[in-house]
Amino acid sequence: TLIGTAGTSPVASSDGCKIGITYWQEGCNVKNVAYTAGVRSHQGLLVGAGKPKSIWLSNCGSSGDTCTSAICKCETPTMMPNMDFGNPVTTDNLMYLRGSGDPLQWSNVPTTSLALAITTTVGTNVGGLGNIILDDASAVDASYLRIDDELVYVHGAASRGVLAVNLYQVTGNPDTGSTCACSIVGNSTGGGSCACFPQEVMTGCTEGGTLGTDQALGFHATFTVANPGAGGYIDSITVVDPGHGFIGIPEINIATGGTGCTLAQYQVFLAATSSSVVKVERGALGTTAATHTVGTSVSKIDWPLRGTANTPGTQYYFRMAAYNDAGLSNYQYYEHAISELSPRLLPTFGGQTVEITMEGGGVTPANTTIYFGHRLVNGSIDYNRSKTCDSVTVADIAGTRLTCVTPPWVGKSHDLMVEYKSGIIRRVSYVTNAVNYPAPVLSSVFPVQVIAGQEAVITIAGLHFGLNQTDVIGAIRTSTGEKPCTPLTLTSDTSATCTLKADPLIPHTGNLVVGVGTTWSGGQQNTTASGIESRIKEIDPPAEVQLTLAVDIETIPEGSPARAPFLGG
Protein backbone atom coordinates (compact mmCIF):
# COMPACT_ATOMS: atom_id res chain seq x y z
CA THR A 1 0.00 0.00 0.00
CA LEU A 2 1.53 3.33 -1.02
CA ILE A 3 1.00 6.22 1.34
CA GLY A 4 1.19 9.95 0.59
CA THR A 5 1.96 12.09 -2.45
CA ALA A 6 4.93 14.11 -1.28
CA GLY A 7 6.74 14.39 -4.59
CA THR A 8 10.09 13.04 -5.68
CA SER A 9 12.20 14.38 -2.82
CA PRO A 10 10.17 14.66 0.38
CA VAL A 11 12.06 16.11 3.33
CA ALA A 12 11.60 15.92 7.07
CA SER A 13 9.19 18.50 8.44
CA SER A 14 10.41 21.11 10.88
CA ASP A 15 8.37 19.83 13.80
CA GLY A 16 10.05 16.46 14.08
CA CYS A 17 7.89 14.60 11.59
CA LYS A 18 5.37 13.19 14.06
CA ILE A 19 3.57 10.02 13.12
CA GLY A 20 -0.04 11.02 12.62
CA ILE A 21 -2.73 11.79 10.11
CA THR A 22 -1.45 15.32 9.45
CA TYR A 23 2.10 14.44 8.57
CA TRP A 24 1.90 11.14 6.73
CA GLN A 25 0.07 12.85 3.90
CA GLU A 26 3.08 15.12 3.42
CA GLY A 27 5.51 12.23 3.10
CA CYS A 28 7.46 12.62 6.34
CA ASN A 29 11.04 11.52 5.66
CA VAL A 30 13.12 11.58 8.83
CA LYS A 31 15.88 9.47 7.19
CA ASN A 32 15.98 11.65 4.04
CA VAL A 33 15.50 8.64 1.74
CA ALA A 34 14.87 9.37 -1.95
CA TYR A 35 11.65 7.57 -2.85
CA THR A 36 11.78 7.10 -6.62
CA ALA A 37 8.02 6.64 -6.88
CA GLY A 38 7.43 9.88 -5.00
CA VAL A 39 5.52 8.11 -2.25
CA ARG A 40 6.16 6.30 1.01
CA SER A 41 5.27 2.67 1.43
CA HIS A 42 4.03 0.71 4.43
CA GLN A 43 3.04 -2.75 3.37
CA GLY A 44 1.58 -5.78 5.05
CA LEU A 45 0.28 -9.12 3.87
CA LEU A 46 -2.83 -10.99 4.95
CA VAL A 47 -2.36 -14.74 4.52
CA GLY A 48 -5.43 -16.93 4.89
CA ALA A 49 -4.94 -20.48 6.14
CA GLY A 50 -5.60 -23.00 3.38
CA LYS A 51 -6.01 -20.33 0.71
CA PRO A 52 -3.83 -20.16 -2.41
CA LYS A 53 -3.54 -16.36 -2.45
CA SER A 54 -2.76 -13.52 -0.10
CA ILE A 55 -3.97 -9.92 -0.01
CA TRP A 56 -2.02 -6.73 0.51
CA LEU A 57 -3.40 -4.50 3.24
CA SER A 58 -4.00 -0.79 2.98
CA ASN A 59 -3.33 1.90 5.53
CA CYS A 60 -6.32 3.83 4.34
CA GLY A 61 -9.33 3.92 6.58
CA SER A 62 -11.64 6.85 5.73
CA SER A 63 -14.38 7.33 3.19
CA GLY A 64 -12.29 9.85 1.26
CA ASP A 65 -9.43 7.40 0.64
CA THR A 66 -8.92 6.00 -2.83
CA CYS A 67 -7.04 2.92 -4.06
CA THR A 68 -6.58 2.39 -7.79
CA SER A 69 -4.57 -0.66 -8.88
CA ALA A 70 -3.07 -0.86 -5.42
CA ILE A 71 -1.83 2.76 -5.55
CA CYS A 72 -3.59 4.37 -2.65
CA LYS A 73 -3.97 8.01 -1.68
CA CYS A 74 -4.97 8.19 1.93
CA GLU A 75 -6.85 11.28 2.96
CA THR A 76 -6.87 9.98 6.53
CA PRO A 77 -4.16 7.35 7.04
CA THR A 78 -4.30 5.27 10.19
CA MET A 79 -1.63 5.48 12.86
CA MET A 80 -1.05 1.73 12.74
CA PRO A 81 0.50 0.48 9.49
CA ASN A 82 -1.47 -2.20 7.68
CA MET A 83 -4.36 -2.38 10.12
CA ASP A 84 -7.40 -0.14 10.57
CA PHE A 85 -7.76 -0.99 14.26
CA GLY A 86 -8.72 -4.60 13.65
CA ASN A 87 -10.68 -3.90 10.49
CA PRO A 88 -8.14 -4.25 7.65
CA VAL A 89 -8.94 -2.76 4.28
CA THR A 90 -7.65 -4.85 1.37
CA THR A 91 -6.45 -3.77 -2.03
CA ASP A 92 -7.18 -5.42 -5.35
CA ASN A 93 -3.56 -6.51 -5.88
CA LEU A 94 -3.35 -10.27 -5.17
CA MET A 95 -0.25 -12.35 -4.55
CA TYR A 96 -0.42 -16.06 -5.32
CA LEU A 97 1.68 -18.34 -3.12
CA ARG A 98 3.34 -21.58 -4.12
CA GLY A 99 2.21 -24.44 -1.89
CA SER A 100 5.60 -25.16 -0.37
CA GLY A 101 4.17 -27.98 1.73
CA ASP A 102 4.37 -30.26 -1.33
CA PRO A 103 8.03 -30.91 -2.23
CA LEU A 104 7.07 -31.65 -5.84
CA GLN A 105 5.86 -28.03 -6.14
CA TRP A 106 9.26 -26.65 -5.16
CA SER A 107 11.02 -24.83 -7.94
CA ASN A 108 13.74 -26.78 -9.73
CA VAL A 109 16.32 -26.18 -12.42
CA PRO A 110 17.02 -28.80 -15.16
CA THR A 111 20.70 -29.61 -14.77
CA THR A 112 21.62 -32.91 -16.42
CA SER A 113 20.13 -36.30 -17.35
CA LEU A 114 20.49 -39.98 -16.49
CA ALA A 115 23.34 -41.78 -18.24
CA LEU A 116 22.15 -45.16 -16.90
CA ALA A 117 18.61 -46.37 -16.36
CA ILE A 118 17.46 -46.78 -12.77
CA THR A 119 15.91 -50.24 -12.80
CA THR A 120 15.03 -50.68 -9.13
CA THR A 121 12.65 -48.88 -6.77
CA VAL A 122 14.82 -49.42 -3.69
CA GLY A 123 18.35 -48.43 -2.74
CA THR A 124 20.79 -51.27 -3.23
CA ASN A 125 22.98 -50.28 -0.27
CA VAL A 126 22.40 -50.30 3.49
CA GLY A 127 20.00 -47.57 4.58
CA GLY A 128 18.10 -47.34 1.30
CA LEU A 129 20.99 -45.69 -0.53
CA GLY A 130 21.69 -46.25 -4.20
CA ASN A 131 24.17 -45.11 -6.82
CA ILE A 132 23.08 -43.36 -10.02
CA ILE A 133 25.09 -42.17 -13.05
CA LEU A 134 24.49 -38.74 -14.53
CA ASP A 135 25.64 -37.40 -17.88
CA ASP A 136 27.42 -34.62 -15.98
CA ALA A 137 27.69 -34.39 -12.20
CA SER A 138 29.86 -31.24 -12.16
CA ALA A 139 26.85 -28.94 -11.75
CA VAL A 140 25.25 -30.95 -8.95
CA ASP A 141 25.68 -28.69 -5.93
CA ALA A 142 22.26 -29.20 -4.36
CA SER A 143 21.24 -31.51 -1.54
CA TYR A 144 18.19 -32.79 -3.44
CA LEU A 145 17.63 -33.78 -7.07
CA ARG A 146 14.37 -34.39 -8.88
CA ILE A 147 13.99 -37.30 -11.35
CA ASP A 148 10.47 -37.43 -12.80
CA ASP A 149 8.28 -37.31 -9.67
CA GLU A 150 10.93 -38.75 -7.34
CA LEU A 151 13.22 -36.67 -5.13
CA VAL A 152 16.59 -38.11 -4.12
CA TYR A 153 18.99 -36.82 -1.47
CA VAL A 154 22.63 -36.60 -2.59
CA HIS A 155 25.24 -38.03 -0.20
CA GLY A 156 28.69 -36.63 -0.88
CA ALA A 157 30.69 -35.87 -3.99
CA ALA A 158 30.61 -37.68 -7.33
CA SER A 159 33.04 -40.54 -7.95
CA ARG A 160 33.77 -43.36 -10.41
CA GLY A 161 31.37 -46.24 -11.13
CA VAL A 162 30.61 -48.79 -13.83
CA LEU A 163 28.42 -47.54 -16.69
CA ALA A 164 28.39 -50.76 -18.76
CA VAL A 165 30.03 -54.19 -19.04
CA ASN A 166 31.17 -55.52 -22.42
CA LEU A 167 32.62 -58.83 -23.62
CA TYR A 168 34.39 -57.59 -26.75
CA GLN A 169 37.00 -54.94 -27.50
CA VAL A 170 36.57 -52.59 -30.46
CA THR A 171 39.25 -52.46 -33.17
CA GLY A 172 39.58 -50.75 -36.57
CA ASN A 173 38.44 -47.44 -38.05
CA PRO A 174 34.83 -46.49 -38.80
CA ASP A 175 33.26 -44.84 -41.82
CA THR A 176 33.31 -41.04 -41.80
CA GLY A 177 30.85 -39.73 -39.28
CA SER A 178 30.41 -43.12 -37.58
CA THR A 179 31.80 -44.76 -34.46
CA CYS A 180 32.98 -48.33 -34.07
CA ALA A 181 31.06 -50.33 -31.48
CA CYS A 182 30.52 -53.94 -30.45
CA SER A 183 27.31 -55.52 -29.25
CA ILE A 184 27.24 -57.85 -26.27
CA VAL A 185 27.31 -60.83 -28.67
CA GLY A 186 30.28 -59.52 -30.73
CA ASN A 187 28.56 -57.88 -33.70
CA SER A 188 30.41 -54.75 -34.88
CA THR A 189 28.83 -51.54 -36.15
CA GLY A 190 30.29 -48.38 -37.64
CA GLY A 191 31.39 -49.72 -41.01
CA GLY A 192 34.92 -49.27 -42.30
CA SER A 193 37.34 -51.73 -40.73
CA CYS A 194 35.45 -51.92 -37.42
CA ALA A 195 35.77 -55.36 -35.80
CA CYS A 196 35.32 -57.01 -32.43
CA PHE A 197 38.03 -58.89 -30.56
CA PRO A 198 38.17 -61.79 -29.92
CA GLN A 199 36.35 -63.26 -32.89
CA GLU A 200 35.44 -66.44 -30.99
CA VAL A 201 32.36 -66.63 -28.80
CA MET A 202 31.84 -68.02 -25.31
CA THR A 203 30.16 -71.38 -24.83
CA GLY A 204 28.59 -73.64 -22.23
CA CYS A 205 26.26 -71.24 -20.39
CA THR A 206 23.28 -73.03 -18.87
CA GLU A 207 21.79 -70.20 -16.78
CA GLY A 208 21.94 -66.46 -16.16
CA GLY A 209 23.33 -64.86 -13.03
CA THR A 210 24.92 -61.79 -11.51
CA LEU A 211 28.24 -59.97 -11.88
CA GLY A 212 30.32 -58.35 -9.16
CA THR A 213 33.83 -57.23 -8.22
CA ASP A 214 36.22 -58.18 -5.45
CA GLN A 215 35.83 -54.65 -4.06
CA ALA A 216 32.91 -53.98 -1.72
CA LEU A 217 31.90 -50.74 -3.45
CA GLY A 218 28.33 -51.57 -4.38
CA PHE A 219 28.60 -52.67 -8.03
CA HIS A 220 25.90 -55.12 -9.10
CA ALA A 221 24.82 -56.34 -12.56
CA THR A 222 22.65 -59.14 -13.94
CA PHE A 223 23.04 -61.16 -17.14
CA THR A 224 20.85 -63.45 -19.20
CA VAL A 225 21.77 -66.41 -21.41
CA ALA A 226 20.66 -67.44 -24.89
CA ASN A 227 20.54 -71.09 -26.05
CA PRO A 228 21.23 -72.60 -22.59
CA GLY A 229 23.45 -75.63 -22.89
CA ALA A 230 26.63 -76.48 -24.76
CA GLY A 231 26.19 -73.51 -27.11
CA GLY A 232 24.85 -71.12 -24.48
CA TYR A 233 26.21 -67.58 -24.34
CA ILE A 234 25.53 -64.31 -22.52
CA ASP A 235 23.18 -62.16 -24.61
CA SER A 236 22.52 -59.23 -22.23
CA ILE A 237 24.16 -57.52 -19.26
CA THR A 238 22.24 -54.96 -17.16
CA VAL A 239 24.04 -52.75 -14.64
CA VAL A 240 21.70 -52.48 -11.64
CA ASP A 241 24.04 -50.47 -9.39
CA PRO A 242 27.19 -48.86 -10.86
CA GLY A 243 28.99 -48.84 -7.53
CA HIS A 244 30.73 -45.80 -6.05
CA GLY A 245 34.32 -44.90 -5.26
CA PHE A 246 36.36 -47.00 -7.70
CA ILE A 247 39.89 -45.64 -8.10
CA GLY A 248 40.62 -47.45 -11.37
CA ILE A 249 38.92 -49.82 -13.81
CA PRO A 250 37.52 -52.68 -11.67
CA GLU A 251 37.90 -56.34 -12.55
CA ILE A 252 34.45 -57.83 -13.21
CA ASN A 253 33.62 -61.47 -12.54
CA ILE A 254 30.62 -63.78 -12.21
CA ALA A 255 29.26 -63.56 -8.68
CA THR A 256 26.33 -66.00 -8.83
CA GLY A 257 24.87 -68.34 -11.44
CA GLY A 258 26.44 -68.57 -14.88
CA THR A 259 26.95 -72.31 -14.55
CA GLY A 260 29.10 -73.67 -17.38
CA CYS A 261 29.91 -70.25 -18.90
CA THR A 262 33.35 -70.48 -20.53
CA LEU A 263 34.88 -67.31 -21.93
CA ALA A 264 36.65 -67.48 -25.27
CA GLN A 265 40.42 -67.13 -25.34
CA TYR A 266 41.48 -63.55 -24.45
CA GLN A 267 37.88 -62.70 -23.55
CA VAL A 268 37.16 -60.87 -20.27
CA PHE A 269 34.38 -58.79 -18.75
CA LEU A 270 35.31 -55.19 -19.70
CA ALA A 271 34.05 -52.38 -17.48
CA ALA A 272 33.23 -49.00 -19.05
CA THR A 273 33.31 -46.43 -16.23
CA SER A 274 32.03 -42.93 -15.53
CA SER A 275 33.16 -40.39 -12.93
CA SER A 276 29.66 -38.88 -12.64
CA VAL A 277 28.27 -41.36 -10.10
CA VAL A 278 26.50 -39.94 -7.05
CA LYS A 279 25.23 -41.83 -4.01
CA VAL A 280 21.61 -40.94 -3.26
CA GLU A 281 18.82 -41.70 -0.81
CA ARG A 282 15.82 -42.91 -2.82
CA GLY A 283 12.28 -41.61 -2.40
CA ALA A 284 13.23 -38.61 -0.26
CA LEU A 285 10.80 -36.15 1.37
CA GLY A 286 7.80 -38.45 1.06
CA THR A 287 8.10 -39.07 -2.68
CA THR A 288 7.91 -42.56 -4.16
CA ALA A 289 10.96 -44.34 -5.55
CA ALA A 290 10.42 -45.42 -9.15
CA THR A 291 12.27 -46.76 -12.17
CA HIS A 292 13.66 -44.22 -14.66
CA THR A 293 14.90 -44.60 -18.23
CA VAL A 294 18.18 -43.45 -19.75
CA GLY A 295 18.05 -39.78 -20.72
CA THR A 296 15.48 -38.78 -18.10
CA SER A 297 15.95 -35.15 -17.12
CA VAL A 298 17.50 -34.54 -13.70
CA SER A 299 16.87 -31.21 -11.94
CA LYS A 300 18.34 -29.72 -8.82
CA ILE A 301 15.91 -28.27 -6.29
CA ASP A 302 15.94 -24.48 -6.10
CA TRP A 303 14.84 -24.14 -2.50
CA PRO A 304 12.05 -21.61 -1.92
CA LEU A 305 13.18 -18.54 0.01
CA ARG A 306 16.64 -19.94 0.62
CA GLY A 307 19.38 -17.53 1.61
CA THR A 308 22.28 -19.62 0.37
CA ALA A 309 22.69 -22.26 -2.30
CA ASN A 310 22.60 -25.22 0.07
CA THR A 311 20.41 -24.07 2.93
CA PRO A 312 16.97 -25.56 2.31
CA GLY A 313 13.58 -24.94 3.78
CA THR A 314 10.56 -22.68 3.60
CA GLN A 315 11.64 -19.91 5.93
CA TYR A 316 10.04 -16.90 7.51
CA TYR A 317 12.15 -13.78 7.88
CA PHE A 318 11.34 -11.26 10.59
CA ARG A 319 12.41 -7.66 10.98
CA MET A 320 11.87 -5.19 13.80
CA ALA A 321 11.76 -1.43 14.02
CA ALA A 322 10.99 1.13 16.69
CA TYR A 323 8.99 4.31 16.11
CA ASN A 324 8.07 7.49 17.97
CA ASP A 325 7.01 11.00 17.03
CA ALA A 326 10.16 11.40 14.94
CA GLY A 327 9.38 8.42 12.72
CA LEU A 328 10.53 4.84 12.16
CA SER A 329 14.00 3.56 13.01
CA ASN A 330 16.04 1.46 10.62
CA TYR A 331 14.88 -2.13 10.46
CA GLN A 332 16.88 -4.70 12.38
CA TYR A 333 17.15 -8.09 10.65
CA TYR A 334 17.89 -11.24 12.62
CA GLU A 335 19.69 -14.16 11.08
CA HIS A 336 21.11 -17.52 12.11
CA ALA A 337 24.85 -16.93 12.54
CA ILE A 338 27.61 -18.09 14.90
CA SER A 339 29.69 -15.38 16.58
CA GLU A 340 32.14 -17.19 18.88
CA LEU A 341 33.02 -20.51 20.50
CA SER A 342 34.96 -21.24 23.67
CA PRO A 343 37.07 -23.26 24.25
CA ARG A 344 38.42 -24.31 20.85
CA LEU A 345 40.90 -26.97 22.03
CA LEU A 346 38.86 -29.98 23.12
CA PRO A 347 39.87 -33.03 25.22
CA THR A 348 40.10 -36.33 23.36
CA PHE A 349 38.10 -38.13 26.06
CA GLY A 350 35.15 -35.74 25.70
CA GLY A 351 32.98 -34.23 28.43
CA GLN A 352 34.02 -30.60 27.92
CA THR A 353 31.26 -27.98 28.19
CA VAL A 354 31.60 -25.41 25.42
CA GLU A 355 29.74 -22.13 25.00
CA ILE A 356 28.59 -20.79 21.65
CA THR A 357 27.41 -17.22 21.12
CA MET A 358 25.24 -16.61 18.07
CA GLU A 359 22.21 -14.95 16.54
CA GLY A 360 18.98 -16.85 16.05
CA GLY A 361 19.83 -19.85 18.21
CA GLY A 362 16.20 -20.28 19.25
CA VAL A 363 14.83 -20.74 22.74
CA THR A 364 14.04 -24.47 22.64
CA PRO A 365 17.07 -26.79 23.00
CA ALA A 366 15.22 -29.65 21.29
CA ASN A 367 15.16 -27.66 18.03
CA THR A 368 18.94 -27.25 17.88
CA THR A 369 21.63 -29.84 17.12
CA ILE A 370 25.31 -28.96 17.39
CA TYR A 371 27.93 -30.89 15.41
CA PHE A 372 31.71 -31.05 15.32
CA GLY A 373 32.94 -32.54 12.08
CA HIS A 374 32.89 -31.86 8.37
CA ARG A 375 30.73 -30.76 5.45
CA LEU A 376 30.11 -32.23 2.03
CA VAL A 377 31.34 -30.51 -1.11
CA ASN A 378 27.89 -28.94 -1.56
CA GLY A 379 28.10 -27.26 1.85
CA SER A 380 25.66 -29.47 3.76
CA ILE A 381 26.57 -31.40 6.90
CA ASP A 382 28.40 -34.69 6.35
CA TYR A 383 26.63 -36.62 9.09
CA ASN A 384 28.88 -39.67 8.57
CA ARG A 385 31.97 -37.60 9.43
CA SER A 386 30.48 -35.51 12.22
CA LYS A 387 29.63 -36.07 15.89
CA THR A 388 26.97 -34.37 17.98
CA CYS A 389 27.76 -32.14 20.92
CA ASP A 390 25.09 -33.36 23.34
CA SER A 391 23.17 -31.92 26.33
CA VAL A 392 22.36 -28.69 24.50
CA THR A 393 21.10 -25.83 26.68
CA VAL A 394 19.96 -22.32 25.83
CA ALA A 395 21.49 -20.03 28.42
CA ASP A 396 19.35 -16.93 27.81
CA ILE A 397 15.84 -16.05 26.65
CA ALA A 398 17.10 -14.61 23.36
CA GLY A 399 18.82 -17.75 22.06
CA THR A 400 22.19 -16.03 21.79
CA ARG A 401 24.17 -18.30 24.15
CA LEU A 402 24.18 -22.09 23.74
CA THR A 403 26.13 -24.71 25.65
CA CYS A 404 26.78 -28.39 24.93
CA VAL A 405 29.02 -31.24 26.10
CA THR A 406 31.63 -32.43 23.61
CA PRO A 407 31.99 -36.04 22.40
CA PRO A 408 35.24 -38.02 22.70
CA TRP A 409 37.17 -37.66 19.45
CA VAL A 410 40.50 -36.80 17.88
CA GLY A 411 41.67 -34.86 14.86
CA LYS A 412 43.66 -31.87 13.75
CA SER A 413 40.72 -29.72 12.64
CA HIS A 414 36.92 -29.83 12.68
CA ASP A 415 34.13 -27.46 11.67
CA LEU A 416 31.46 -26.29 14.09
CA MET A 417 27.92 -26.61 12.70
CA VAL A 418 24.69 -25.53 14.39
CA GLU A 419 21.48 -26.87 12.85
CA TYR A 420 18.10 -25.41 13.80
CA LYS A 421 14.85 -27.16 12.88
CA SER A 422 11.31 -26.07 13.65
CA GLY A 423 8.54 -27.54 11.53
CA ILE A 424 9.52 -26.94 7.92
CA ILE A 425 12.09 -24.29 8.84
CA ARG A 426 15.72 -25.40 8.76
CA ARG A 427 18.79 -23.22 9.20
CA VAL A 428 22.45 -24.29 9.34
CA SER A 429 25.37 -22.06 10.34
CA TYR A 430 28.98 -23.14 10.52
CA VAL A 431 32.50 -22.02 11.35
CA THR A 432 35.28 -23.67 9.33
CA ASN A 433 38.21 -25.16 11.29
CA ALA A 434 36.60 -24.06 14.54
CA VAL A 435 37.99 -26.67 16.93
CA ASN A 436 40.81 -29.17 17.21
CA TYR A 437 41.97 -31.90 19.53
CA PRO A 438 45.48 -31.96 21.06
CA ALA A 439 48.25 -33.91 19.38
CA PRO A 440 49.16 -37.23 21.05
CA VAL A 441 52.05 -37.38 23.49
CA LEU A 442 54.17 -40.51 24.08
CA SER A 443 55.63 -40.54 27.60
CA SER A 444 57.12 -44.06 27.96
CA VAL A 445 57.48 -47.50 26.41
CA PHE A 446 58.03 -50.89 28.06
CA PRO A 447 60.13 -52.93 27.67
CA VAL A 448 62.91 -50.74 26.31
CA GLN A 449 64.99 -53.76 25.26
CA VAL A 450 63.66 -56.53 23.06
CA ILE A 451 65.25 -59.71 21.78
CA ALA A 452 66.44 -59.66 18.19
CA GLY A 453 64.68 -61.88 15.68
CA GLN A 454 61.56 -62.32 17.84
CA GLU A 455 58.10 -60.74 17.92
CA ALA A 456 57.95 -57.88 20.43
CA VAL A 457 54.90 -56.55 22.31
CA ILE A 458 55.45 -53.00 23.57
CA THR A 459 53.23 -51.20 26.09
CA ILE A 460 52.93 -47.48 25.27
CA ALA A 461 51.88 -44.82 27.78
CA GLY A 462 50.99 -41.26 26.90
CA LEU A 463 48.17 -38.75 26.44
CA HIS A 464 45.47 -37.86 23.90
CA PHE A 465 45.19 -41.21 22.12
CA GLY A 466 41.39 -40.94 22.01
CA LEU A 467 38.86 -43.72 22.50
CA ASN A 468 38.36 -44.95 18.91
CA GLN A 469 40.53 -47.85 17.74
CA THR A 470 40.19 -46.97 14.04
CA ASP A 471 41.65 -43.50 14.64
CA VAL A 472 45.01 -44.79 15.98
CA ILE A 473 48.04 -46.31 14.23
CA GLY A 474 51.63 -46.92 15.31
CA ALA A 475 55.05 -47.80 13.92
CA ILE A 476 58.73 -48.00 14.78
CA ARG A 477 61.10 -45.73 12.87
CA THR A 478 64.60 -47.07 12.47
CA SER A 479 67.70 -46.19 10.53
CA THR A 480 66.77 -48.78 7.90
CA GLY A 481 63.08 -48.04 7.53
CA GLU A 482 59.69 -47.91 9.19
CA LYS A 483 57.66 -50.91 10.32
CA PRO A 484 54.00 -50.62 11.45
CA CYS A 485 52.54 -52.09 14.61
CA THR A 486 50.51 -55.13 13.55
CA PRO A 487 48.36 -54.38 15.34
CA LEU A 488 48.40 -51.31 17.56
CA THR A 489 45.70 -51.99 20.16
CA LEU A 490 44.16 -49.01 21.94
CA THR A 491 43.39 -49.70 25.60
CA SER A 492 42.50 -46.17 26.79
CA ASP A 493 43.05 -42.51 26.05
CA THR A 494 46.46 -42.87 27.72
CA SER A 495 47.70 -46.33 26.78
CA ALA A 496 48.11 -48.77 23.88
CA THR A 497 50.09 -51.86 22.93
CA CYS A 498 52.17 -52.28 19.78
CA THR A 499 53.00 -55.69 18.32
CA LEU A 500 56.13 -55.70 16.13
CA LYS A 501 56.61 -58.76 13.95
CA ALA A 502 60.12 -60.12 13.44
CA ASP A 503 61.78 -58.70 10.34
CA PRO A 504 65.43 -59.42 9.40
CA LEU A 505 65.59 -56.24 7.30
CA ILE A 506 64.25 -53.82 9.93
CA PRO A 507 65.61 -54.39 13.44
CA HIS A 508 63.66 -53.37 16.53
CA THR A 509 65.97 -50.48 17.33
CA GLY A 510 64.44 -47.01 16.97
CA ASN A 511 61.61 -44.75 18.16
CA LEU A 512 57.97 -45.73 18.41
CA VAL A 513 55.55 -43.23 16.87
CA VAL A 514 51.79 -43.09 17.50
CA GLY A 515 49.54 -41.38 14.93
CA VAL A 516 46.08 -40.27 16.02
CA GLY A 517 43.38 -39.13 13.61
CA THR A 518 42.63 -39.81 9.94
CA THR A 519 41.34 -37.85 6.97
CA TRP A 520 37.89 -39.04 8.05
CA SER A 521 38.32 -37.61 11.56
CA GLY A 522 39.93 -34.29 10.81
CA GLY A 523 43.54 -35.10 10.02
CA GLN A 524 46.34 -37.12 11.60
CA GLN A 525 48.69 -35.88 14.33
CA ASN A 526 51.79 -37.82 15.42
CA THR A 527 53.93 -38.12 18.50
CA THR A 528 57.54 -36.97 18.11
CA ALA A 529 59.95 -39.52 16.63
CA SER A 530 62.86 -38.70 18.91
CA GLY A 531 63.69 -38.81 22.60
CA ILE A 532 64.60 -41.49 25.09
CA GLU A 533 60.97 -41.91 26.21
CA SER A 534 59.96 -43.51 22.89
CA ARG A 535 63.13 -45.48 22.11
CA ILE A 536 63.55 -49.25 22.22
CA LYS A 537 66.67 -51.28 21.49
CA GLU A 538 67.20 -54.74 20.12
CA ILE A 539 69.60 -57.04 22.00
CA ASP A 540 71.04 -60.38 20.98
CA PRO A 541 69.33 -63.52 22.31
CA PRO A 542 71.13 -65.62 24.99
CA ALA A 543 74.04 -67.60 23.48
CA GLU A 544 74.40 -71.38 23.83
CA VAL A 545 78.08 -72.46 23.84
CA GLN A 546 79.37 -76.03 23.50
CA LEU A 547 83.05 -76.75 24.42
CA THR A 548 85.09 -79.89 23.78
CA LEU A 549 88.08 -80.25 26.13
CA ALA A 550 91.02 -82.47 25.28
CA VAL A 551 91.80 -84.91 28.13
CA ASP A 552 95.55 -85.36 28.56
CA ILE A 553 95.63 -87.27 31.86
CA GLU A 554 95.91 -90.87 32.92
CA THR A 555 92.80 -92.55 34.23
CA ILE A 556 93.15 -93.59 37.85
CA PRO A 557 91.73 -97.06 38.45
CA GLU A 558 88.96 -97.47 40.98
CA GLY A 559 90.18 -98.51 44.41
CA SER A 560 93.58 -97.01 43.84
CA PRO A 561 95.11 -95.04 46.78
CA ALA A 562 95.73 -92.24 44.27
CA ARG A 563 91.98 -91.44 44.22
CA ALA A 564 92.00 -90.62 47.89
CA PRO A 565 92.93 -86.88 47.51
CA PHE A 566 89.99 -86.41 45.11
CA LEU A 567 87.50 -88.35 47.28
CA GLY A 568 88.45 -86.63 50.51
CA GLY A 569 89.78 -89.80 52.00
UniProtKB/TrEMBL annotation:
Pfam families: TIG. CDD domains: IPT_PCSR. Residues 440-524 form the IPT/TIG domain. InterPro entries: Ig-like_fold, Ig_E-set, IPT_dom. This is IPT/TIG domain-containing protein.
